[in-house]
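Fold this sequence, please.
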Amino acid sequence: MFELSQDHEDFRMVVRDFAEKEVAPNIAKWDAAAHFPTDLVPKMGDLGLFGLVVPEEYGGAGEAGDFTSLCVAIEELGRVDQSIGITLSAGVGLGINPILTYGTEEQKQRFLPDLVSGRALAGFGLTEPEAGSDAGATRTKAVRDGDDWVVSGAKAFITNSGTDITSVVTVTARTGTNEDGSAQLSAIMIPAGTPGFVVEPAYHKLGWHVSDTHGLTFEDCRVPADHLLGEEGEGFKQFLKTLDDGRIAISALAVGCAQACLELATDYAKTRIAFGRPIGVNQGVSFQLADLAVMVEGARLLTYKAAWLKDELHAGKRSVKEVKQAAAIAKLHSTEAAVTATRIATQVFGGNGFMEEYPVARFYRDAKILEIGEGTSEVQRMLIARGLGLPA
């Protein structure tokens, strides 16, 4: 059965120390100003966080890293702040992973070293204003014109797409029609600064204030033909595979959120005095925290089982179907547990929980998107049902 190794636990302490020293003292002011801390990204790169699943020839950890280590890092960053956690999760899962998995050697050599080092970030452009869960409804088009692709369309809610160090965004675009009449989708890399590539103003979001999120517009955006990622017409399959891995990473982010709520609420229940005694004496509070502890433990076990299966798949010991099912189960349970955890923690804090000076308020705002991004809870239930053999 799976378990975290001592190396994983030692690594956890390294990332926790980084998060508490580099993120915790600054996060309240960053959140209030909706400021993306560009200078933090290279520091994360120096720690090796962006290279945990990347071979050594591109600057990564090689055999010293694995997907489980990435989840440990995301959890620990997410325990201090969810925005910083998603910056890493998206930077690796949505930025680096498609290039690493489907890119040519030239594409890997061009983009990966800077992405792994934290000198650059990459985005993943799938969602559109009218194509979210129904990714097959993509309207962005790419037309071949000689030695170029000309891309036109729009993307929505794209993470890490408009920072000062964003180097490239990989987007899905219609490049033709399949025999059954459905849209043929391909993945195309569009470097930042390409004429016709317009980064729209940052969204005014409910949560994840420190995460960089923009809409993107492509107006006859011309890129060389060799910017096609993988085979023409394979973009939809590529991005679905990318999302499978991303769901495990989001589960780890949710575990970090729930763990933070458990710690914050438990400490508060020990020190907050009402009617002459700590509120944690009251069963109305203590039972809620007991339930929260169960939710955290369950979420963590499901997440790291899925991460372990992902590493076992990489070693040729597991099936894709098995990992997909575990990823969907972990994502569904962990994200819904995180949302519940923030509600419980805020309730324990009472009126103080509604005040921005207390971190539980930030976690409360940040948690909801976990049930939406990387596939909604409804999509996860659909995938789990299919995994049980029920009709599609």
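The chain has a mean pLDDT of 96. The first strand starts at residue 121 and ends at 125.
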